[in-house]
Amino acid sequence: MARLYEYQGKEILKDVGIKVPEGRVVESPEEAAKAAEELGGEVVLKIQVWLKGRAEMGGVKFASSPDQAKEMAASLLGKKFKNFVVEKLLVERKLNIKEELFAGIVIDDYEKKPLVVFSAIGGTGIEEIAKEHPEAILKHHVDVLEGFPEYRARGLLSKMGFKGKLLVKLSSTLSKLYQAFRKYDARSAEINPLVITEEGDVYAADTHITVDDYAVYRHPELGIEIAREFDRPPTELEKIAYKVEENDYRGTFYFFQMVEKPNPDENYIGFHGAGGGGSMMSMDAVLNRGFKIANFTDTSGNPPASKVYRAAKIILSQPGIIGYFASGSGVASQEQFNSARGLVKAFMEEQIEIPAVLRLGGNYEEKAIEILQTFSKFIPAEIEGYGRDDSPEFCADRLKELVENGGRKVHRVRPMEEFTPPENAYSFKTLTGAVYIDHSLCVKCQAKPCVDACTYGVLKFEDGKPVLAISEEEAAKGKCTECLACELACFLEGSKAIKIHLPIPGLKEYREKLSKEG
Amino acid sequence: MAILIDEKTRVLVQGITGREGRARTRLMKGYGTNVVAGVTPGKGGQEVEAVPVFDSVYEAVEKVGEIDASAIFVPAPLVKAAALEAIDAGIKLLLLVPDRVPIHDVLEIAAHAERKGAKFIGPNTLGVLSPGKAVLGMIGGRPETAKAWFRQGDIGVSSRSGGITSAISYYLSRAGFGLSTIVHVGGDAVVGLPHPDIMLLFQEDPQTKMMVMFGEIGTTQEERVAELVEQGKITKPIVAFIGGKAAKEGTRFSHAGAIVEGGRGSYASKVERLKKAGVYIADALMEIPKVVGEVRKKHGLD
After folding, report:
1. Which of A179, A300, B57, B148 could cross-link A275 (Cys pair, CB 3.0–4.6 Å)?
2. What is the distance, to the nearest Å, from the Cα of residue A517 to the centroid of all Cα atoms in its chain?
């Protein structure tokens, strides 16, 4: 669930017509003073971070003059609250609060319907109130085909005892909150506190909105960098990984770092799971053997070899790891040779020296293990492949033995070379990269394994040289699945004429920065 | 018997001409599923694996006659339209295979399905397989592997993880047990047929004598199964394994979410609740066959 900052949430509420206190987002003490001056009177300064209970941790302050606002902003900006450094403050006109209420909408997974939650008592103690006085809380399931019109909200709130103008204002707010919830594909949207002022107005004093990760693509206006739930800002490598996921709809690639710079003395390994349940089980197996995981990665849902390749390249951009462990459920339905090819392409390019244990059980596991064995001679490290009859525990034991017997090598991240296509090469684009074939080498090739390797029928021979058997457009739209079979076959038996370039934007620069930092 | 699908079920494949659609049609046909038609708008008149392709679901129904189930293999943003078309054309069971279907789309699909009396499995599901009869979706990957991995028998399997659905079923088969139907309910927060619904179907199925359930942290599916057991609506023995023991409990951003779940949803709460209801708990995946053996002995199932 992608979280929005309070100021973003309030923009959304404003958009649907819910009143929010007048305010400005500031990034410096000077801007804070200017905002306070423009707003006039007493203002509140609130840190913009993804944390609950900001007031209790000193992240909400009141100022009665621009000078005081400036001073307070200086004390808050740049300060660390839990995992977040404060970069932005929301400066708002202070409300004359008479009462605090609660309004929220979530999705009830069992009813498969949005659930409107409303309480006449709001504030931070709402969860306790719900436990002790469940009858004081309104809960109403909404039929999405009908929506949640104001009259329905009025009917429900009048039963709770609200009357007159206040009833109308509250019902309108609740109905609009539902509109915002639907319009912005929210997983949850809440206003807490929902304030009734001394003047009798209804304001959203604070709001938390989370957006469905899977629908973020519909909302570029929200500027969400990574559509995942984080309890800290995403790391640079996570941002690079997310771009890969965003630009390739085939299968799933998830990358989350436990540490940004693994300490080489602390048994960190690169972890590459497949599938939620299988990844968890495999993670438990390595953790129980004294390893720590530098990252949690999951490539699943039948990803193409190119996606697995990029995942491995990103995992191997973490210096200090002492091993590489890939394992899923063990009985995968996805075509495991894709994973094997992606992994060996990455391992060969990186020339890794740390041991790797790869449990690629399931559909086509024999082929996957054969690929690993065939190409392991081009990789300095010890590479072992296993299948469905080898448990995660056994595989984790193997990794431990390989690490110990191999003298506990520590992974060093290599600089990435600029890709230069062979001169005058025949080439065509694929969905996320490009294939280059140096036909001058094909002339000398006896084995010609490339076209046979291409089981999707993308390549054919013309005068003894491999060319597209389909249109360039079809290849670029995904007919060429980036399975990497032609490149690896050409490397092994042919004349090394095929190069498949799969760019990972930002990774080269990231590695340069790493090496500068030493 | 078996649940949801057998060799007689007349199946449609939506998105049949795509990469996944083609590969899984090959699996389904090869395994014995009665695939009667495919749909890809704009590609009507073609054939995939000898299955006729139509431009719309309506046309498919008109040309081949009644269709019982549709397996949907279209990109996630197009799933809603495909599902609503199938529901509108009168199909009563849908399988939503893709991952990353927006949750609000799922809510709309659910609302339409409810009105038309249709059911859906998923999204984000590998599908359903009744050993020796039929497969809907992609469990097993290829006919050869699906036939080799899963033995027919009397254990119903329901899982929230795709890979684990196959893993549990394979390890049970390897230990000599057989399966009635295996179901991947889907990995998302909102799914059409969650564990409680599947358990009730197994309860009614004469072929099924006991169930194995793989649960995960989050949602209240497993707690609701416990309730059904306590209410006496499920009487067949259940062995459960809950994943995510190592995952730290997430700090919640939403008060409203916490109010709704009310302390449910964690590993500890699920295990405790299930145990109290009399569900057997396996502590590790690899232990499931052993626990199943013990439970069968206790209940005189062999």
Report:
1. A300
2. 26
